[in-house]
Amino acid sequence: MSHEGIRITPKEPEAPEREERLPLSRIAVTPEKVRVLLTEGKGMEIDWADGHRSAWSFAWLRDACPCATCVEERSQVGRKPGEPKAKPAAVLPMYAPPAKPASAYPVGRYAIQFNWLDGHSGGIYSWEYLRRSCQCRECSK
Ligand SMILES: [Zn+2]
Ligand SMILES: [Zn+2]
Asked: I need a surface site. Which of 10, 69, 80, 83 has the fewest CB within 10 A?
């Protein structure tokens, strides 16, 4: 048996400029209270077990849908989670009703899912994803 001809390519080192993702503590991703403001059409608020509070508008959540289709679509156009779609400038603006879910329900103990009024529902929003996407001034610095 000969090992000649086998070349092992060393793995590229991880790019240092990659966004640093510090691990979150368990209480930071444990929701104490989840309020989905369906009737008001406002959005969702979460009080976390570590005392932090986060809030997202439904529009943001819809544009941050973590399902494979939406993630793929966003990566193709370079859209960040929650960033609204670019509107074609040449076309007369059409009225688009703001994103709103018809219902929301928990997925196991780790996530929440929305049934959007536009018929979309594939995205599973894990507590960790939501905590990492906290919109408060402190976190979005
Ligand atoms: Zn989606
Ligand atoms: Zn925050």
From this structure: 10
